[in-house]
Amino acid sequence: MSSYPIVRHRRLRRSAGLRSMVRETVLTADDMIYPIFVTYGENIRSEIPSMPGVYHLSMDLLEQEIREVAALGIKAVLLFGVPCHKDAHGSSAYDPNGIVQEAVRAVKGWAPELVVIADTCLCQFTDHGHCGVVRKDEATGIAVVDNDKSLELLVRTAISQAEAGADIIAPSNMMDGFVYAIRAGLDEAGYSDIAIMSYSVKYASAFYGPFRDAAHSAPQFGDRKTYQMDPANGREALREAESDVAEGADMLMVKPALAYLDIVKTLKEQFDLPVVAYNVSAEYSMVKAAAANGWIDERAIVLETLTGMKRAGADLIITYHAKDAAKWLRGDGM
Ligand code: PBG
């Protein structure tokens, strides 16, 4: 008499050796991009209250941070600037001596081999906190974000970041045509080698809350729903990604990550470009809060989460956990 069950999945799970032989997804420090917030002033290392372990760093303390990141084997950082001057047109965003431009220059000086990615957006730099230029609609009198006017400023921002030495431009503003405009602008300015990591599929998400506290970039009126995507839409993500591919994007990003892993998987299946998942601020804050209460095992939760993102199709993960994860991975992994 044949014995049941006939299929025994547990045979390959019997030992750590067997499990590691058949493991399909292996997370490494190479997969991770570490976001850093740079601020003016001296000797500033102020922790963002809703993001324990993440800091506003002044330029003089940035070098130490960069050396630590590089020593951990992390290959790339994503720089965000917290400026001291804001105005209606976000002029500090494209100031050749702006905070991001200075930080990019400094980082490339300290660690030339580290890949420096510049976030290209206006919201941290505009007094109204929107990602573009605001004008009053003549017919309705309502304030709207002007797509094409915003593009001009984003192109200037991208060129100034490339001039400063950024390896990758990461436009996060969700204006239509931003990849094409930035690609054309970079090429014309002589930066045809500089890649564009497009925030292709960026949802209008509540998961950016802690970041907006950190970057002082919350919109002062209204919301971002006329340019960021409706969380209910999946097929629209394909249209966003398609246009970015056609316009010359080098990488496609999905943001946030956790609640949108179906989109990560779809993009991976439908397109040939590297897919990036942004493990955003509130995803980080929730883990930190639960860990601080002793409710979860932070190390296990973080490594499982990042592995899940990679399994879903992310080639790269932007994550505030990057330094911790890189340290943990140096040990015994999962
Ligand atoms: C700028 C930008 C945001 C984030 C990255 N770039 C905020 C937003 O769109 O409101 C969010 C990142 C995070 O939450 O970690 N547009």
TrEMBL record:
<dbReference type="GO" id="GO:0005829">
    <property type="term" value="C:cytosol"/>
</dbReference>
<dbReference type="GO" id="GO:0006783">
    <property type="term" value="P:heme biosynthetic process"/>
</dbReference>
<feature type="active site" description="Schiff-base intermediate with substrate">
    <location>
        <position position="202"/>
    </location>
</feature>
<comment type="pathway">
    <text>Porphyrin-containing compound metabolism; protoporphyrin-IX biosynthesis; coproporphyrinogen-III from 5-aminolevulinate: step 1/4.</text>
</comment>
<dbReference type="InterPro" id="IPR013785">
    <property type="entry name" value="Aldolase_TIM"/>
</dbReference>
<keyword id="KW-0460">Magnesium</keyword>
<comment type="subunit">
    <text>Homooctamer.</text>
</comment>
<feature type="binding site">
    <location>
        <position position="320"/>
    </location>
    <ligand>
        <name>5-aminolevulinate 2</name>
    </ligand>
</feature>
<keyword id="KW-0627">Porphyrin biosynthesis</keyword>
<feature type="binding site">
    <location>
        <position position="224"/>
    </location>
    <ligand>
        <name>5-aminolevulinate 1</name>
    </ligand>
</feature>
<dbReference type="InterPro" id="IPR001731">
    <property type="entry name" value="ALAD"/>
</dbReference>
<feature type="binding site">
    <location>
        <position position="123"/>
    </location>
    <ligand>
        <name>Zn(2+)</name>
    </ligand>
</feature>
<feature type="binding site">
    <location>
        <position position="212"/>
    </location>
    <ligand>
        <name>5-aminolevulinate 1</name>
    </ligand>
</feature>
<feature type="binding site">
    <location>
        <position position="121"/>
    </location>
    <ligand>
        <name>Zn(2+)</name>
    </ligand>
</feature>
<keyword id="KW-0456">Lyase</keyword>
<protein>
    <recommendedName>
        <fullName>Delta-aminolevulinic acid dehydratase</fullName>
        <ecNumber>4.2.1.24</ecNumber>
    </recommendedName>
</protein>
<keyword id="KW-0350">Heme biosynthesis</keyword>
<dbReference type="InterPro" id="IPR030656">
    <property type="entry name" value="ALAD_AS"/>
</dbReference>
<feature type="binding site">
    <location>
        <position position="131"/>
    </location>
    <ligand>
        <name>Zn(2+)</name>
    </ligand>
</feature>
<comment type="similarity">
    <text>Belongs to the ALAD family.</text>
</comment>
<feature type="active site" description="Schiff-base intermediate with substrate">
    <location>
        <position position="255"/>
    </location>
</feature>
<dbReference type="GO" id="GO:0004655">
    <property type="term" value="F:porphobilinogen synthase activity"/>
</dbReference>
<dbReference type="Pfam" id="PF00490">
    <property type="entry name" value="ALAD"/>
</dbReference>
<feature type="binding site">
    <location>
        <position position="281"/>
    </location>
    <ligand>
        <name>5-aminolevulinate 2</name>
    </ligand>
</feature>
<keyword id="KW-0479">Metal-binding</keyword>
<comment type="function">
    <text>Catalyzes an early step in the biosynthesis of tetrapyrroles. Binds two molecules of 5-aminolevulinate per subunit, each at a distinct site, and catalyzes their condensation to form porphobilinogen.</text>
</comment>
<feature type="binding site">
    <location>
        <position position="240"/>
    </location>
    <ligand>
        <name>Mg(2+)</name>
    </ligand>
</feature>
<dbReference type="GO" id="GO:0008270">
    <property type="term" value="F:zinc ion binding"/>
</dbReference>
<keyword id="KW-0862">Zinc</keyword>
